[in-house]
Amino acid sequence: MASLVDIVVSLAASVGLILALLQSSAKLDEEDDPKFRAGRERLGLWLTSQPKKSFSQRVSEANEFFFRWFDGFFRGKGTLLEQGLWLGLVFSPVMLLLIRLLLLVTGEPMPQTSGMLLLAITLAFLLSMAVVGARALSVLFGVLFGVLFGVLFGVLAGVLGVVLGVVLGVVLSEGLAYMLGFTVGGILGSVAPQLLRFHLPVHPLRSLALSLATVIFLGIIMWNARVSFYHLLLQDGPIVLSYVAFNMFADGISLLETRWILRRSLNLGLLSLLGLVLLDLVASAAIFLVLPLILGELPSFWESIFFKGSRPWLGILFWSTFSTSVLFYLFVGTVLLFILPGHWLARLFYRTIGRIITIESRPFTAIAYGMILLVVAVVAVGWIGAFVYHLAVG
To answer: Helix count (H) and strand count (E) of the chain?
Structure first.
């Protein structure tokens, strides 16, 4: 049962999110960049016009507007630092899989899960930053590059094995540490420079910021899950934060996947768009489940998704993976309520927003208000439905 303090904190977090959304929207409406201003004016005219187009065409246009906004906000510059951060995110589950395989092959006891996660993340980002440094200096390539990284990470893994073994309870024998190092050096050390040639069109820091903000917000409003995580943090110490850090891999890749879906859905029909939306949901869930699959903890993770079991806080990490998808659904749903021709709900919605803001000149703020009203309506319907259900059940 939630306490009064929990309810007040959740309400405060919700109000803070609403204010942040309105402030961000106001800044977009005041942006002076000529290209952005032209797009904003086009959006304002589109929201206030009622051309004779089919519902499918209007949905497709709403999808295109969201994609342009999404790309403008999350687009990266393709710098080596950005590529290195993406490399570290992608290598994190690869490192975790290598550690798990080596432990199974050597018969070593499985260390604490949070310790393995921290070791995998540390090795992944050390490797990626070293690769970026090598590319920047244009010095180490080919076989020499792989051999040098084999030695480097053999020593590095040995040091980390000792340090983390003492401080964090991650026990890796010296032989296993060197085996891990040469595996990393021989395989990833040769592959990583080639991966830097691929440009990922999303800024990793903005992706990480969205992931962290979503986790914090869900942690505030999900009382039981938050308390469970707090108790574990007191018991095991800061090492449990490695779960949150590792989750940023899932959120980052999910953001890339959502962008790919949005791009592929441009100019498609309604049924094709709905199919891709469903694919987005399935793919986002599958990306998150990579972690429990590698750890062999899928059954317990599945229980946590619904905020049950011994680790309900893992549900927060799972649902944060859908943050971009939820923004897309809210945006399209809100825009459709502006443009549905002749529908009484659309007319009511349009008049309500029109009394608050001038839609044509401030379209982003109008959409923000619309998203807020839509969420409030959905939550209210959910509460009423739950109340009626409890009355019926008895």
So the answer is: 18, 0
How do residues 85-100 score in pLDDT, each as one tens digit? 888 888 888 888 877 8
Measured in whole angstroms, how far is the alpha carbon of residue 178 from the centre of its chain? Answer: 34
Q: At what angle do helices 142-167 and 113-137 cross, to 10 degrees?
A: 150
As a whole number of Å, the CA-based R_g of the chain is 24
Residues 6+ apart with CB under 8 A from 72: 36
Q: Can you tell me which residue has the tokens 């990583």?
A: 192
Q: DSSP class of residue 310?
A: S
58-95 per-residue burial string, b: 16 or more CB within 10 A, e: under 16:
bbbbbbebbbbbbeeebebeeeeebbbbbbbbbbbbbb
- Every domain of the chain and the residues it spans: 1-50+341-394, 54-75+205-339, 80-195
What is the predicted pLDDT for the residue at 170?
43
The per-residue pLDDT for range 150-169, each reduced to its tens digit, is: 555 555 545 444 444 443 34
Cβ(258)–Cβ(210) below 8 Å? no
Please state the three-class secondary structure of 35-91 as a single string.
HHHHHHHHHHHHHHCCCCCCHHHHHHHHHHHHHHHHHHHHCCCCCHHHHHHHHHHHH
**Rounded average pLDDT over 215-239:** 84
The single residue listed with the structure tokens 């420079």 is 193
